[in-house]
Amino acid sequence: MSHDFLERPGSSRPQRVADEIQKELARLVQFEVKDPRLGMVTITAVEVARDFSYADVWYSVLKGDRAKSQKALESATGFLRTQIGRAIKLRITPHLRFRFDEATERGIAMSTLIDQARADDKRIVHHDDQPPAKPDDGND
Fold first, then answer.
1. Which domains, and CATH codes, for the chain?
2. Strand 40-48 vs strand 54-63: parallel, antiparallel, or unpaired?
3. What are the phi and psi torsion angles at 47 (to 5°)?
4. For 61-104, how does the pLDDT look when each residue is reduced to its tens digit (9 = 90+)?
5. Which one of 13, 42, 84, 106 counts the least CB within 10 Å of its CB?
6. Residue 48 and residue 25 in contact, taking contact as beta carbons nearer than 8 Å
């Protein structure tokens, strides 16, 4: 007897559905959506409403134009929703709302700042390692 219908500790049904939608969307975006406007997009998170009426899909763009990728995802929403409905057997397939995940950009910016600070520290340490210049007393 299968116990899939039982709640797992710490896991709600909307969260499990969100995880499945995220996996399926990642596959679809990578292999099925043929829109040239779509850059290299990563599905970073999915949040499904308790009533399954909608799902907020968070994505980042690793390569390509953010605005064009948003338009491409919006254009593909019907196709993606249909494919999700076929892959994941749900009574209601949520409407998809695509949201740009700025955390990736913030992470890259922070990493750049850290790298710059390390480079600055190395320059300062390099100058401190040199012995101080002796004053010229003119007796040479």
1. 13-105 (3.30.300.20)
2. antiparallel
3. -120, 125
4. 989 999 999 999 999 999 999 999 999 988 899 999 999 999 87
5. 106
6. no
